[in-house]
Amino acid sequence: WDETHFGKMGSYYINRTFFFDVHPPLGKMLIGLAGYLSGYDGTFPFQKPGDRYEQHNYMGMRGVRHYRLVSSFLALLCFSVRVLLLELSKSLPAALLTASILIFDTGCITLSQYILLDPILMFFLMGAVLSMVKCNTCADRPFSASWWFWLSLTGVNLAGAIGVKFVGLFVVLLVGLNTIYDLWDLLGNLSLSLVTFGKHLLARVLCLILLPLALYTAMFAVHFTVLNKSGPGDGFFSSAFQSQLIGNNLHNVSIPE
């Protein structure tokens, strides 16, 4: 059922047809991009679960051929788990064992074979945790290039997680609690001046609040720019908005404020 749901939305992006969904747009845009890059033309109707794809090139969106965007996210997830466990445990056998367990997990293998948001979501969730841990390891050299890189990458992954599904807010909570703990620890360090503490605070506001918000907003900017044709989501929006959609009955009609 979910494949029918999100595959149809991938087609909407390829056809630039406006729709409405409860989830943010990033995951569905990536599914549409995978289909576009692999030669899918967006013509399959996705009417009900179990319909045969016949001659339609759907494999790109399922992520198991040349442009394997979705399964690549799962592969990167396994790699991220290995790096994270190595960072936390300092044990290569433990890291390899954990990554191997994930690689051969039936649930993960199944998720990677269908047109779903879950592998993309899990990648960004794990990426946020990994970036946070790597940033913590750079705590002894704040404001270095590596410290800025991992702090910024944490913000990017937070935006990615929320941009796929709102359940990504849980990893925002995790990173937020970790940040509060770090700042409280720095505030209690009497060897640091208030100016230095202020720099730490501003760096986290910039990378963990403003950067994710900017990226999240940019996702919707792309979403509304691409979907410029009338579709099934028109009725959820105002008449003034509908007048901007090509093919809508109100297209280019003058709408009073």
Structure, described:
It contains 11 helices and no strands. The protein has 257 residues and is mainly alpha-helical. It folds into 3 domains: 1-56 and 227-251, no CATH class; 71-115, no CATH class; 117-225. The longest helix has 33 residues, at 194-226. Keywords: Glycosyltransferase, Membrane, Transferase, Transmembrane, Transmembrane helix.
What is the compact description of this entry?
This protein has 257 residues and is an all-alpha fold. 64% of the residues lie in helices and 0% in strands. α4 runs parallel beside α7 and α8 (145-164) runs parallel beside α10.
Characteristic key phrases:
3 domains; mainly alpha; 11 helices; glycosyltransferase; flat; transmembrane helix; 257 residues; 64% helix; single chain
**Distance between the amino and carboxyl termini:** 41 Å
The amount of helix comes to: 55-70%
Q: Based on Cα principal axes, name the global outline.
A: flat
Write down how many β-strands occur, each being a DSSP E stretch of 2 or more residues: 0
**Element order, helices and strands?**
HHHHHHHHHHH
Protein name: Protein O-mannosyl-transferase 2
Pathway: Protein modification; protein glycosylation
Domain ArnT-like N-terminal: 1-228
Subcellular location: Endomembrane system
What layout of secondary structure does this protein have?
Elements: H1 2-15, H2 26-37, H3 59-62, H4 69-89, H5 92-103, H6 106-111, H7 118-137, H8 145-164, H9 169-187, H10 194-226, H11 239-242
Helix pairs in contact: 1-2, 4-5, 4-7, 7-8, 7-9, 8-9, 8-10, 9-10
